[in-house]
């Protein structure tokens, strides 16, 4: 008897997270790299606190799984620079989101946030350092032998993480809280746009970068771009559901923040039942996008269900 899909996925996620943790730790050691002068101990410790704190590691997992689906000869180690890069950028965003000027959170992944464990100035520099390290990893020849591929990966991540992606989405999210005094609240289309930017863009980058590293054609990159869009929306909808249904101990961070901040979400606008129905539709679309690869895409299909049905 074979293991149930969710059991196999949990094992795959756990195994990958352990490998990524080791890869990140190796890249955040005290020895300066060529071209560096020194790595200040306090900053390094705070960066490690931010990055080596567990978590789902979903984005690098998706990157790796897509790449290996298209090119089974690729190894987790070979893909580690790109995997570590996208996780560093994601972790930088969490450190900055947790700051008092943003979400003012004291808990992340069940541990004190960086500005609480260290201080605000250090937390800002941690974010700066992790953001820079992400592009260092992608630009390094160890990431890929072809400079054109490395340049494309840098562009993928920069576009997803910047003004027109994650950072821009964070600005729209702050505006949705009424931070800037106009009192306007976003409608459904505006909520979907800010969520596609703040959350979805980086998940889409993970699937596109994986397809690029796997040698996918333009059509394949487009298909996995849509797959990432679907997963990004599902992830945010599930997150919004958890904010109103989960406890702080289950999540390892504060909950009920959206309502407290007066933030518009699709859960608030459409209701829990409608959001759950949309999650079912998104899982079906994600599964259909994987159909050209048949049974070989079972892990990615299970990941889509996990994103939509997660409980933390």
From TrEMBL:
Q: Which keywords annotate this record?
A: Isoprene biosynthesis, Magnesium, Metal-binding, Transferase
Species, as recorded: Pleomorphomonas diazotrophica
The biological process GO terms on file are: terpenoid biosynthetic process
Which stretch is the leader sequence? none
What cofactor(s) does the depicted protein rely on? Mg(2+)
* Family annotation (Gene3D superfamilies): Farnesyl Diphosphate Synthase (1.10.600.10)
- Which InterPro entries does the record match to this protein? Isoprenoid_synthase_dom_sf, Polyprenyl_synt, Polyprenyl_synt_CS
Q: Name one GO molecular function term.
A: metal ion binding
Q: Determine if Transferase is one of this entry's keywords.
A: yes
Recorded family membership:
Belongs to the FPP/GGPP synthase family.
Return the protein name: Probable farnesyl diphosphate synthase
């Amino acid at each position: 008897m074979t293991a149930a899909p969710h059991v196999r996925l949990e094992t795959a996620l756990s195994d990958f997270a352990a490998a990524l943790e080791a890869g990140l730790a190796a890249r955040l050691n005290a020895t300066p790299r060529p071209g560096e002068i020194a790595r200040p101990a306090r900053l390094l410790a705070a960066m490690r606190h931010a990055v080596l704190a567990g978590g789902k590691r979903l984005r690098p997992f998706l990157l790796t799984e897509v790449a290996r689906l298209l090119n089974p000869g690729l190894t987790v180690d070979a893909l580690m620079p790109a995997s570590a890069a996208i996780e560093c950028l994601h972790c930088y965003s969490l450190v900055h989101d947790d700051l008092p000027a943003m979400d003012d959170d004291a808990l992340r992944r069940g541990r004190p946030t960086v500005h609480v464990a260290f201080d605000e100035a250090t937390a800002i520099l941690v974010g700066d350092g992790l953001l820079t390290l992400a592009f260092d990893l992608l630009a390094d020849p160890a990431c890929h032998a072809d400079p054109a591929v490395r340049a494309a990966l840098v562009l993928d991540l920069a576009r997803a993480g910047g003004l027109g992606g994650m950072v821009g989405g964070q600005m729209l999210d702050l505006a949705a809280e009424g931070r800037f005094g106009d009192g306007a609240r976003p409608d459904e289309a505006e909520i979907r746009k800010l969520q596609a930017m703040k959350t979805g863009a980086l998940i889409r980058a993970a699937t596109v970068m994986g397809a690029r590293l796997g040698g996918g054609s333009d059509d394949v990159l487009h298909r996995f771009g849509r797959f990432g869009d679907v997963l990004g929306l599902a992830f945010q909808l599930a997150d919004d559901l958890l904010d109103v249904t989960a406890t702080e101990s289950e999540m390892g961070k504060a909950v009920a923040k959206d309502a407290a901040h007066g933030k518009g979400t699709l859960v608030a606008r459409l209701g829990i039942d409608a959001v759950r129905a949309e999650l079912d539709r998104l899982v079906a679309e994600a599964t259909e996008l994987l159909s050209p690869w048949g049974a070989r895409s079972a892990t990615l299909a299970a990941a889509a269900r996990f994103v939509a049905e997660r409980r933390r």
